[in-house]
Amino acid sequence: MLAVDVQKQLGAFALDARFASEGGVTALFGASGTGKTTVIMTIAGLTRPDRGSIVLDGEVLFDSDKRLDVKPWKRRIGTVFQEARLFPHLSVRHNLDYGRWMSGLPADARAFAHALELLDIGHLVDRRPGKLSGGERQRVAFGRALLMRPRLLLLDEPLASLDAARKAEILPYLERLRDDARVPMIYVSHNADEVRRIATRVVRLEAGRVAAQGGVEIL
Amino acid sequence: MLDLTPEEWTAVALSLRVATVSTLVALPFGIAIAHVLARKEFWGKPLLDAIVLLPLVLPPVVTGYLLLVTFGRRAPLGAFLADHLGLVFSFRWTGAALASGIMAFPLMVRAIRLSIEAVDRRLENAASTLGANPFWRFLTITLPLTLPGIIAGMMLAFARALGEFGATITFVSNIPGETQTISAAIYSLTQVPGGDAAALRLVAVAICISYAALLAAEFFARRAQRRLHGD
Q1: What is the CATH number of the domain that holds A181?
Q2: Distance (Å, rounded) from C-alpha B151 to C-alpha B24?
Q3: Which residues neighbour B41 within 8 Å (Cβ) at sequence distance 6 or greater?
Q4: Does domain B6-229 match CATH 1.10.1240.10?
Q5: What ipTM was reported for this prediction?
Q6: What is the pLDDT of residues A200-209, one digit of tens each?
Q7: Which of A87, A105, A138 best tests the B interface by mutation, with the highest count of B CBs <10 A?
Q8: Domain count, chain A
């Protein structure tokens, strides 16, 4: 269970978003420039809200009144960015292992093999990210976020940088991830079709505010 | 091919030792200062920046003289280091290494700093979300991505140390076998009649070492680049 209530002033743009997610896939939906990415970055801990609070599974991650701000590396929230952001100097295997290693988790060969199979990236493990295609890169990024065993997965328009054909290729993997991993997800997108396929709940943002929230029918 | 006398070999070996030690000892400080200048904002940052650059613009003799009055045996700091740590700089090869290191420091810091500034911060943010605290993030992401700049910085520092003359000769003099590097030896040889042949031999050696250092740096920088962008 995630409860978000954040305010932030960015130049002339004012973000004031309040919503909750009960698990499953919650889509943050809206046109570009409505503050979707800013919201998700405050949840990850990479952007600091001016005011408000963020609570995940009963743990307060941010609370401006109590001056509480858990550092991003202590939040255990997996994040997949628009550009995969794989580490170019590490092999795919080490990219996948990075989160587990940094979080101090023991090696789990079964989880590793399962993620490889789920995302169909087994043949890539010994390669470096430099020569992967956009779709392959993004699948590795999913695996990397998943293998840190996150409490919550944040997906920031993970398909936006791909062309239509690649998108169609990746979407099934996202659905498998949703059905298999059983990690609650926040999925940022401006694409209604994508959201209909992936999300169980929708929070619609307009000009930095929550305009509506409910099932996919509100799209 | 090169018929060097034992004295000349001594000067060559000493030069290599001084340049290597000064580069390696300066490296951790260089990385630390470069990181602070590249990433931190604080009051007095322009002052720190200027102090680091100072040896580049000061006459080397001035730097050498300042070292002499700071680290000389009779200077408080020099006496303290000699008495408590057994670290003597004046008229020793260690002093030559110190002078070379300080003269080379601005070049090293500049190369590493530019390289750190070029590292994609978004990769560091990704590492943070994956559980890496700032220390591990620096060690596993920032530092490896900075490697080409670190190699370039070391190369510049090594070359600068090899060519260092003014500060060294002012600080630790020109003692054969102790502080007489290639540069100082060449200078001495040009001051005596009939020293031309020996001077030319050392000049040839200096060219060889510098060229080899350049090739080695190029080789390692290419390898690092391939590691960063290959498949």
Answers
A1: 3.40.50.300
A2: 11
A3: none
A4: no
A5: 0.93
A6: 999 999 999 9
A7: A87
A8: 1
